[in-house]
Protein: J domain-containing protein
Organism: Tistrella mobilis
Amino acid sequence: MAIDLFSIRRTAAYAPDGTRLCDCEGCGEEGAFRAPKSRDRLRDYYFFCLEHVRAYNKGWDYFKGLSSAEIDRHLHDDMTWHRPSWPFASVDRDQADEVARAAAQMFREGRTSDPFGMFGAAGRAAERVRAAAEARFTPDERQAFKTLGIDPTRDLPQIKDHYKKLAKRLHPDVTGGDAASEERMKSVNQAYSFLMHRASDWT
């Protein structure tokens, strides 16, 4: 049984008890099954009984009216959820070079790491320097620095400055007494006290 648009009700119909009736003209069954009205109205539905929704679905063709090129384009866009994308070639070359130079400078200064050697000799050299610097500290000291969220260093002013910033950010007046922040502050205080105690052995 095929359904064309002329056999579909122009307005919704309801039974006396309020039940939505099938949208097929002349049908008195409950319209319990939804079906999209068109490719461009996928969130706008007809309501059919089981018999008529089966007939409607049998004749449903999402790509009806589209050319082969339009269908191919639609299938291609499905891979990116129909969102725009750009080729890598669109990245500004000068900007990319500037980022690469800045990254190399950070490696040379030991401000970041390159454990997989993605940035070549500069990254590998910086990683060796970084590893050698960390080897000067005990595992407990390295863990304390990790708790504070900074790289191991014997620069006491830097440690103190970082601690003060953390203390302000985690203060109960700022966090509103958040329990997780309070626990984090306890860990930070313990790590800071431990490092200040250990600092006497660094000089």
In short: Helices lie at 50-58, 68-78, 93-108, 120-134, 139-148, 156-169, 172-175, 179-198. The radius of gyration is 33 Å. The first strand starts at residue 33 and ends at 38.
